[in-house]
Amino acid sequence: MSIHHHLSSLYLAQSDSLISFDVEGLIDQFWSNTVDGLAQGSIYALVALGYTLVYGVLKLINFAHSEVFIYGAYATWFTFYALGFRPGPTAELAIFELVGFLLLALLAAVLASGATAVVLERVAYRPLRNRGAPRLVFLITAIGASFVLQQLIFIWRGGNPEQAIRLLRPEPVFEIFGASVTNITIIIVLASILLWLVADTFVNRTRFGRGIRAVAQDPDTATLMGVNKERVIMTTFLIGGLLAGAAALFYMMKIPQGAAYQGGFLLGIKAFTAAVLGGIGNLRGALLGGLLLGLMENYGQSLFGGEWRDVVAFALLVLILMFRPTGILGESLGKARV
Amino acid sequence: MSRARFGRVVVLAATASLVLGACAARTEDGGGDDTGSQPQASAPAQAANAADPAGDGNATCDAGTKLAYAGTINGANAALGQNILNGVKVAIERHNSNNPNCQVELQEFETEGTPDRAPGIVTQIVNTQDIIGVVGLPFSGESKAAGNIFDDAGLVQVTPSATNPALSENGWKTFFRGLGNDNTQGPAAAQFITEELGAQTVCVVRDDSEYGIGLANSITDRLGDKASCQEQIKTKQTDFSAVVNSIKGENPDAIFFSGYYQEAAPFAQQLFDAGVEAQFVGPDGVKDDEFVKGAGDAAEGVYFTCPCVPADQFTEFNEGYKQVSGGRAPGTYSPEGYDLATILLKGIDSGVKDRAGMLEFVKGYEGQGLTKSFKWNEKGELAESTVWTYKVENGQIVRNTEIKPKG
């Protein structure tokens, strides 16, 4: 091979070895990867909340949640489009216009995803529940619903992703250890943590949240104690959907090409992984799992190379589940806590 | 959307006419040594003897004679498939409207461009007995997965865009490639990047497709020491931050992205946002309007290499294309799709009635098309091939220069 690298790092051509380690790359890009990993991880965390909430209440892995997310991404895109923006160079906007438009898109995304989640629950899951279907049937239905929602977009919009529309260009705001932190990263990370706080407070501190926790612990007893189970379930789906909608807007700000019919699939799987990693059914676990996954993916890619991205994510999951089968923080939504 | 496309057509027409006027003056510039200042080569004119699907107008054939297009129509990287399909349609239209006694039907098969879908679809095609020739499959991955099915059925498959070199090494007697493979494109791209663009360090980024891997190996070999870094990404990946950070650390002069536009668009944008100033160069799989629109701010000034011939001066073809495509201008490999469909139509007009006859006809075919002259060797490769470069200027893809290989 004539390829010679001037680097001291241990890059090897693909044909020479299956895995190569680039330790120097990992160290060099550690901080930029940390910053970018946190942004991606925040999006995972918000989507993971939806998986975790539904699982906590119904013991159902709602595989169609990835489509709930992508419907929000489409809503974002169409909002931008309806506001008169077109694909091409980033628009120059005054700050109040920008904030106004983004809030409008947030509203649209949140409504679209929330509505999708509620309709999904009504159409796909409630009839099964009323007939007392076994749990496996729910799982298959979830996968089926995921395909149906995906193909609806495919039939309507085709296989090409929507062409990128972007309102805000990422600009470096400050640096930590040489890694620049962009305005978009700041917005995504702060807003995600804020939304997580709101969701956590809602579930753990409010009266309605108590209802959710009661149903999670013991649905029958909760019903006997006067909790409206169906309403709790619907609200749970709604909250998950709202958070997925917000995640979709952040995702579209970060990756304007994100509105693709299959675009939710991999992200959904990753978010689900994040939920399991942190402890499914546990809101804090979803946040921790999401951020951790975002970081590890980036570190792993730096160390092993880009094609190992997904392997790193899932290997991490297997490794952690080996030692902590219920995830890092364990399943807590269903456990009694005072 | 349609307004933007109309604009593109106008600009293309305008640049074409400008270039014609400026040709003589441009040649005195000598070889451009500085990025972005090469003289634009004029688009090839239509050869007088280019095969015309209209023929003499007296062709007769059995009713129900069918050709097929197989490839992505709405699936992954759909635009690349639609360009070809529309090119094929132009040829069929032109043939049928001029030959009242020979109406050839075109059947379209959607493979979604994926290796796992294609074999099932191709099986369906070979089981449709009336189909005697196929234009497809556009992508290398799906071609590798389904080529043997065509071979077993003895059904001719002419591909207008699958460029992975290994495809012709499988011993399939039904495989014919209507363009140069990546053993041509890779070195040509390397030559363009290092000599025309003057890059001393080049980062080769590939996806995990058959096409991306093959082309990356081919260009890396030729770049030699100048291939300063290699990165891998995955199909359907959207967040490229780790790869971007790593490239930022390498600080190369140029980046060659060996893959398709669906990943190239967000990748180019994220590089741009991170302040990476390296010249972005993409191959034929990236050269599409979808890339330009998808990459936003990052698209301007991007170069493409492509074994495809600019259609700017194929006036008649362009008009026909606009009719079948709803007013859009031809894209990458549209003229190639037209040429290949024309060859199959010539076969039908010459009296071919079945798959075996079509196979013999294509094997022995020799003739000029819009894009090049066609004559295949026993492996199904063309003797003659060309690689062009293109560039994004004012949001439009315009032709740049033809790469003349130096050994």
Task: Provide a descriptive summary of the structure in words.
The complex is a heterodimer of chains A (338) and B (407). Chain A is an all-alpha fold. Chain A has helices at 23-28, 30-58, 65-82, 95-130, 135-157, 183-205, 207-217, 219-224, 229-254, 263-278, 283-304, 309-323, and strands at residues 172-176, 179-182. Chain A has a single domain (23-323), classed as ABC transporter involved in vitamin B12 uptake, BtuC. Chain A is built from twelve helices and two strands. Chain B is of the alpha/beta class and 407 residues long. Chain B folds into two domains: 2-45 and 182-310 and 387-403, Response regulator (Rossmann fold, 3-Layer(aba) Sandwich); 66-179 and 311-374, Response regulator (Rossmann fold). Chain B is 41% helix and 16% strand. Chain B has twelve helices and 14 strands. Chain B has a seven-stranded mixed beta sheet, sandwiched between helices. In chain B, helix 2 (78-98) runs parallel beside helix 11 and helix 8 runs parallel beside helix 9. Chain B is globular and about 65 Å long. Chains A and B meet through helix 2, helix 10 and helix 11 of A and strand 7, helix 7, helix 8 and helix 9 of B.
List the helices and strands and how they pair.
The complex is a heterodimer of chains A (338) and B (407).
Chain A: H1 23-28, H2 30-58, H3 65-82, H4 95-130, H5 135-157, E1 172-176, E2 179-182, H6 183-205, H7 207-217, H8 219-224, H9 229-254, H10 263-278, H11 283-304, H12 309-323
Antiparallel strand pairs in A: 1-2
Chain B: H1 2-27, E1 66-71, H2 78-98, E2 105-110, H3 118-126, E3 131-135, H4 140-153, E4 157-159, E5 175-177, H5 182-196, E6 202-206, H6 210-223, E7 227-232, H7 241-250, E8 254-258, H8 261-273, E9 279-282, H9 289-295, E10 303-306, H10 315-325, H11 334-349, H12 355-364, E11 367-368, E12 373-374, E13 387-393, E14 396-403
Parallel strand pairs in B: 1-2, 1-3, 3-4, 4-5, 6-7, 6-8, 8-9, 9-10
Antiparallel strand pairs in B: 10-13, 11-12, 13-14
